[in-house]
Amino acid sequence: MNVVLLEPEIHYNTGNIGRTCAATGTALHLIKPLGFSLDDKYLKRAGLDYWADVNLTVYENYGEFINLNPRAPIYFATTKGGAAYTDIRYAPGDFFMFGKESAGIPETILKSNIERCVRIPMFPGARSLNLGNSVAIVLYEALRQNDFKSLVTSSDYLK
Fold first, then answer.
1. Which burial class, exposed, middle or buried, applies to 115 when counting CB atoms under 10 A from its CB (0-12, 13-18, 19+)?
2. What's the confidence (pLDDT) of residue 139?
3. What is the SS3 assignment for 56?
4. Residue 44 burial class via C-beta count within 10 angstroms: exposed 0-12, middle 13-18, buried 19 and up
5. Where are the beta strands (DSSP E) in the chain?
6. Is the pTM of this model over 0.85?
7. What is the pLDDT of residues 16-37, one digit of tens each?
8. Mean pLDDT of the residues in the chain
9. How far is CA 110 from CA 16, 53, 64, 80, in A?
């Protein structure tokens, strides 16, 4: 699986997401501009000692990401998506893109990928969820659908 953060702004969120990616064997793709430095102590603090284990790729812009991943099956997480994230059947190798905290994914990108836009259902009037929470929700649904391949499950404990 692959998590893509388009222009993330908050180091704590990205650090938290990096930790989630390291714990699940998920690749993390960051698309610049970033709202922080990758050397930021707060980024690393949020990711704890997992940050060194993150399979990280950084891109200069969205165009470079698309050029280097031309056939990537990308799902775009947005509050404007028609399908609930649980309505999709995910496969290993899928990409899940999340936009920056203040604005989400630009509408030009969403409109050209409308059939791959997914949303997390929320109470009416709620604008959005925390970025780290949103990533965890969608990623763990995809992992669940694929039987948590290569992850330790509860059956591996208490034997």
1. exposed
2. 98
3. strand
4. middle
5. 2-6, 27-31, 56-59, 74-77, 83-84, 95-98, 117-119
6. yes
7. 999 999 999 999 999 999 998 8
8. 91
9. 25, 31, 17, 9
140, two tokens: 């763990």
Q: Which two tokens stand for residue 70?
A: 């031309």
- Write the CB contacts of 67 (distance below 8 Å, at least 6 apart in sequence): none
SS3 67: helix
Mean pLDDT of 65-91: 96
Give the pLDDT band of residue 111 (cuts 50, 70, 90): very high
The pLDDT value recorded for residue 51 is: 80
Q: Which domains, and CATH codes, for the chain?
A: 2-156 (3.40.1280.10)
